Write the structure tokens for this entry.
Amino acid sequence: MFDKTEADRAPKQDRSRVTRQRLLEAAVSCLAEHGWAGSTVSVVAERAGVSRGAAQHHFRTREELFTAAVEYVAEERSAALRGLFPDAGGGAAGADRTAVVGALVDLYTGPLFRAALQLWVAASNEEQLSPRVAELEARVGRETHRIAVELLGADESGSGVRETVQGLLDMARGLGLANLLTDDAVRRKRVVAQWGRLVDEALG
């Protein structure tokens, strides 16, 4: 027999997932554009096109909303990097190392990193936010390192290889920070080319 309650529940769950997704995307956009101080639940709800009540149904507090947002950002950052080289499971054989370096730098100079950075700043002054953000950032750091090793075809049993990959990620993060103040695209292109050569030499 046709169960109307069950049939009604599925569209409702779909709508709920869509609303949650819109809120997370709006939270990320607000953080990137307005920073922590300008990103209230009301502002996020308005940007997402939902009521404040609907926002609070999904996220009871501002901290809950933005910790969910940083988890979303973390997942999107990892997915973005993996998606750039879907056929590069074999490492450098599937993707040019300079292109991988460029992709890593792009990851740290885009809006997802900018939003994550705003959360770091907020977490440094918010006791309720700090532990969760630190935990999630540690996780995305490990994931980014793992993906970088895979894409570069790096053998971390070799001397200095792990440090080379970590140094590359630190460099990419630094370029991301520099890009917050000015468009550093021209210099960044030269740096990426040089690091591509250095990484290729170091990894063999």
